[in-house]
Amino acid sequence: MLLLTLSLLSSPTLKACSEVTRLMRVAQVEKVLGTSKVGPKYRITLVNPVQKRLKVKIGDLIVFIEDEKGNILLKVSRLT
User: Fold this and answer.
1) pLDDT tens sequence across 1-21
2) Which end of the chain has fewer CB within 10 Å, C or N?
3) What is the SS3 assignment for 63-75?
4) Cα gap 34→13, rounded to integer Å
5) CATH architecture observed for domain 33-80
């Protein structure tokens, strides 16, 4: 990474990689399971490790919950 030219340092992809690296350092106690890019309709894909941890199945609802510290939690709600 030290040999990158100045034009590459301003590229959006490199900035995103730098942000992921920074977040991984911040989350030393936490485990990074993967990343998802927000699509044109603000949709994301749950990466395989997250799917497995949440035991998500097609048709399940993902509930986004904000805790008292402002962290966003994901929980699965199954329709029966």
Assistant:
1) 333 333 444 455 556 667 777
2) C
3) EEEECCCCCEEEE
4) 16
5) Ribbon (2.10)
Q: What is the pLDDT of residues 16-74, one digit of tens each?
A: 667 777 666 655 567 888 899 999 999 999 999 999 999 999 899 999 999 998 989 98
Enumerate residues 6+ apart whose C-beta is below 8 A from 48.
Answer: 34
Amino acid type, 52: K
Give how far the C-alpha of residue 24 lies from the chain's centroid of Cα atoms, to the nearest Å: 11
The whole model's pTM is what? 0.56
Q: Where do the structural domains in the chain lie, given as residue ranges?
A: 1-32, 33-80
| 29 touches 9 (CB < 8 A) | no
Give dist(CA 27, CA 11) in Å, integer.
Answer: 24
Matching residue, tokens 């990343």: 35
Tokens (6 digits) for 45: 């894909």
The number of residues making up the chain comes to 80
